[in-house]
Amino acid sequence: MKRILGTVLACATLAACSGPDPSPQPTAPTTAPSVAAGLTDCGTFSPPQGDGLPESAARCLIEAVRAGHPAQLKVTRLTVEGDPIPVTYTVGADGRVEIITDSRQDGFGTQVVTRRTCTDPVAAPELQFAHCSEPTPIE
């Protein structure tokens, strides 16, 4: 009985101490509108440090802007130190893109959530915008 209990405790300890999968796989983007939010889901991605966003994700967002169709894209980037920075791009029916950046987990950054509104996205090679408002903190 002690041997079984020891084995169970050792397994539980190892499971609790193991870190996240070092190379998380992105979810595939879908073109069908999300029933709950009325948005096209352009995907959720966590590219490895130094890797870019898949071309299909940028294309999905750009096409939604051109069509004036609501869409969303979620990307978690890693800082140099490996801290995750989630960024959510939400396309409105007016073609503007709201960008929410959450740097609260950045051990060396400002640790704030900010909002910007941008227009005219291009994929060159990363998703970029011709015009953006200044980032404003979200309380």
UniProtKB/TrEMBL annotation:
Residues 1-18 form the signal peptide. Keywords: Signal. Residues 19-51 are annotated as: Disordered. InterPro entries: DUF4362. It comes from the Bacteria. Transmembrane segments: none annotated. Residues 28-37 have a biased composition (Low complexity). It holds the Pfam family DUF4362. This is Lipoprotein. It comes from Actinoplanes lobatus.
